[in-house]
Fold:
Amino acid sequence: MTDWKLVSELVSPAVPKKRRKTAKSSEAKKDWRQDPATEKQIEFLKSFGVTPAPNLKKGEASELIDRCINDPEARRIQDEKRFADWEAVMKRQRQERAASGAFSFRKDFEKAKTEVAKEMDRISKSKVAAASKKKELALLQKRLTHAVGAEKEEIEEQIEDIECDLIDLECDPIDLQCCKEELKEAETVRIKFWKATFKRDWIQSDDAMEYDVLVDVSTTIDKLYEEYGQYFKSPTNKQIKDVLESLDSASLDWDRAQPDAFFARLHHISPSQMKVGAGIRTSKSSTSRTKAGKGKGCLVVLLSGVLLFVTMVVVLAYIADQASPRNDGSRMVG
Structure:
């Protein structure tokens, strides 16, 4: 195989001679080939393991790309590089997901919602623009019936332009459908995450097999289960969705700053989900309990001190009474 990394040593194949149509077209072609290679051409060559020469021209880059595409070894290098790049991206995403925990699924969900909103807005604007173009087209077609000569040719050109614009404005319903499916998928994965926090053996469930992204946040799931989830009955998807909607409307990052709020809200909305004899401890409740505990402790110490003081007073009074001379009958006889 040719050493593709030594691009500077490669000799560009001779350009096949073609019949010149006009001097102008030949000059344009010559200028195009002598322009500096584009960034896309350079990056594409690098994907084959090629190190482009510093002053590579467009024509040379185009020929090198053709040679790489037709070279099995160059294609193999490209496939390996693309797979390595993909693995690096996936690894980074897994690390970010593991660090973000519950919030990573919130981000995916919000991003999908934004894409649906953008697509719907684009469709709406396209419909408005298309309606305006159709009105303009109708007027031109009406004028065309009475036009002659140069005016007729001009109107026909305008009609052709508008028809092209209408084609561009046509919205493929598949695009919106894909966005909606991605939104549904993001919502499903988010619900699956929270549902897993109520199961000790969630890692063995079908959800863990189907949604491998849950494995990336296994530490977070296990921690939430040990601290909160084990004290609840497993909620339905509808209950989880209601809790998420309630919390999302109140805070932009509750699942990052205070994920235990999910369990507190679930208990508030559905008290029957709490297992018999179980208690929930959230950051706020634990803080209030700590403060209450401190207050009770101070009160106990104070009462103990008062009781000790009273006891000492009684004992001292008794001792003093025993030590004082008795005013009894024997003393009167003497």
Q: What stands out?
A: Residues 7-88 form one domain. Residues 1-26, 284-303, 326-334 have pLDDT under 50 and may be disordered. The CA atoms of residues 137 and 274 lie 66 Å apart. The chain has 15 helices and no strands.
